[in-house]
TrEMBL record:
<protein>
    <recommendedName>
        <fullName>Zeta toxin domain-containing protein</fullName>
    </recommendedName>
</protein>
Length: 212
């Protein structure tokens, strides 16, 4: 949302919202992955990355349809959420339509700092129990983050440390405007894409901690 406001983008969509709408008319029996948390196990001893990818895949058509709609309307858009797999797909589609776009991922390199951030979020929001559940599944979350970082690097997304000078918003803005950026060091956990029309910006993002 901060990126949207910084870029003057009025439309910001979270994949959590897309998932909530789909859950209202698609039952758990029809699509177990849709009703599963992105970091939850699909079965005993499953692979956390594969299970995460399943939760992304069930939303992918809905996400792409919303991006197509924004392109057709010529509207700027921020799309964020852990269910967006870092890739060139949405970025290239946006650029092909005449816009400018960038993807970015904010990550936490230090595991203990990551845990502290989750607990702090639970305290601030008053919803500590969900964050404690995440900490119980912390190894899975870290494995998912590692895979997201790898994919983000391959897709040439920005990799940004959350507490960083210059400000991450400035870095994203510079990237959209084609300004060269200095190489970045990394330690914090989140992901984000910014896709923008020259007149109507658009952004998409994904994160392992839901705080984009």
């Amino acid at each position: 949302m901060s990126v949207a406001l910084d870029q003057g983008i009025l439309k910001c969509i979270s994949t959590d919202t897309v998932r909530a709408v789909m859950r209202s008319f698609v039952t758990k029996e029809v699509s177990p992955a849709l009703h599963r948390s992105s970091y939850a196990a699909a079965n005993e001893n499953d692979d956390p990355v594969r299970s995460w990818l399943e939760t992304c895949t069930v939303l992918s058509n809905g996400v792409e349809d919303l991006v197509d709609d924004a392109i057709n309307r010529g509207q700027s858009l921020v799309f964020e959420g852990v269910h967006i797999i870092p890739s060139r797909n949405l970025i290239d589609k946006w650029v092909s339509a005449g816009g400018v776009a960038t993807g970015c991922m904010l990550k936490i390199k230090d595991a203990e700092a990551h845990k502290m951030m989750l607990r702090r979020r639970g305290f601030i929001t008053g919803k500590g129990d969900p964050e404690e559940e995440k900490i119980k599944s912390f190894d899975r979350i870290r494995a998912i983050q590692d895979d997201m970082v790898r994919r983000a690097e391959e897709a040439q997304w920005l990799l940004i440390e959350q507490k960083l000078d210059p400000d991450p918003l400035e870095m994203i803005s510079n990237n959209l405007l084609g300004v060269d950026l200095a190489p970045l060091s990394l330690p914090k956990s989140e992901t984000k894409i910014d896709l923008s029309f020259i007149e109507e910006p658009f952004a998409v993002g994904a994160s392992t901690n839901g705080e984009i």
